[in-house]
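The following record pairs a protein chain with its ligand, flavin-adenine dinucleotide.
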Amino acid sequence: MARERQHSPRLSRRSLLGGAAAGAVGLTAVSAGTASAAASRTVDVAIVGGGIAGLTAARDLVAGGRTVAVLEARDRVGGRVVNLKLANGGFTEGGGEFIGPTQNRIKALADSLGVATFTTYNTGNNLLYKDGKRTPYDTSGLLGSVPPVDAAGLANAAIVQSELDSMAATVPVDTPWTAAKAAEWDKQTFESWLNANAIVPSAKFLLDLACTSIFSAQPRELSLLYVLYYIAAAGDESHAGTLERLTDTAGGAQESRFVGGSQQVPIKLAATLGDRVVLSAPVRSIARSGSAYVVTADGITVNATRVVVALPPPLAARISYDPLLPAARDQLTQRMPMGSIGKAIAVYDTPFWRADGLNGQAVSDSGVVRSTFDNSPPDASYGALMGFIEADEIRAYDAASEADVKTAVLADYANYFGDKAKSPTSFVLQRWDNEGFSRGGPVAYAPPGVLTEYGAALRQPAGGIHWAGTETSTFWTGYMDGAVRSGERVAKEVLAALG
Ligand SMILES: Cc1cc2nc3c(=O)[nH]c(=O)nc-3n(C[C@H](O)[C@H](O)[C@H](O)COP(=O)(O)OP(=O)(O)OC[C@H]3O[C@@H](n4cnc5c(N)ncnc54)[C@H](O)[C@@H]3O)c2cc1C
């Protein structure tokens, strides 16, 4: 095993509070390293990316007796998970925040770090806003969380949902491209399948909404096979994935939240790794040198026997590789775009909608925000409405001024929750498409033809370069849980390779 060496100048240690990006909550508990000019290290494994996947891989590699350096481009850890400061001294979550049943690996990680969960506020009625009309509805009824559209639409949507679940049950989560009907399903978009199956307009509305809410991509952009794989992945080794588990709050992926915000998980995980984590170190190149690799980031060079790249595929493609990656791997990364997503959080003195019997969860057929949640803290010391701005909606607003986005968002919130929603005490906007080291979210997805042609390259190491990140997970790909699973899998892979 290589001994970890640091050459002068020694990497500086500091609290990350001062270095955190504007608005991002600082990592007071962590004292990680920052890249300084001409630093270099020699370790067993260089890990590119300090998101949940990269940090989990580091944890397991260190536990396996290996030396690591985690190179993170941003001045904070957590990647697609971030706590953002509020003017009232609180914070809100700008990226991934919810966890739910069968997401066992993120739960185990949070438990191990002492990060507790609480139940997403879900008391009172949901709200459907359709054709300009507000319809509150009770999710404890027969329909569960399905918005109450017309009877024909509900019947059609139920058939479509059951059909999707049955098709997904035939898709192996580790090799979706080997499903018996993989070729047929991967040559069509989800849109073309929905057009043939969700024939009642209100059923198509429900399925379109589910699609944009899950992927932050329009049905026309996604391979049907990829959608089925994603549904199959919404479970664990003993529970088959279902569409309902993806969309539901109670019993589904939105069931719980983290006390202190989801970024507590990567912050506390990074703290256990100390100055093995190097911030503000975007990796520019990975070059083979004899039997090892030279990983060059801004301000630091790491020599390593193995490299783990824990980035979404399109961002991994922005690194230069020498020798070139196998063609199939590069073609894969050329074909998996990030979804388009923003989050808008309006803060109020109180969660006033609760007094109106509403739980803050609205779905809509119009507006810039078409899906909302009550994002108030567990003690409800203030109120927060969080809205997703997804796919075509955020694309239309990627270049807009924050003031214009705010005006559009608050108009939607007023339609859903009344005029009080027009006067928040503060407003936070996070546009992931404009984030340099994410360029969208929540996940890099597969359009038609990608999984069957290039899916096998998702996890296939390229020499001593191994791939992690939620996109490589078999269960809960696209989610924090998938990120943890991918980190655990890649660490096993690398430990086995190192012998
Ligand atoms: C708005 C939004 C809402 C979401 N909601 C949920 C949710 O409710 N529940 C859930 O489970 N999941 C949710 N997700 C998804 C979840 O956040 C991700 O699946 C997960 O965080 C991915 O972790 P990762 O480590 O695989 O990747 P990332 O978090 O993307 O980590 C990659 C890291 O690599 C860094 N990086 C990029 N390029 C370089 C480079 N060249 N050199 C060095 N470092 C680099 C990035 O800065 C980043 O820190 C959401 C995501 C978004 C954006």
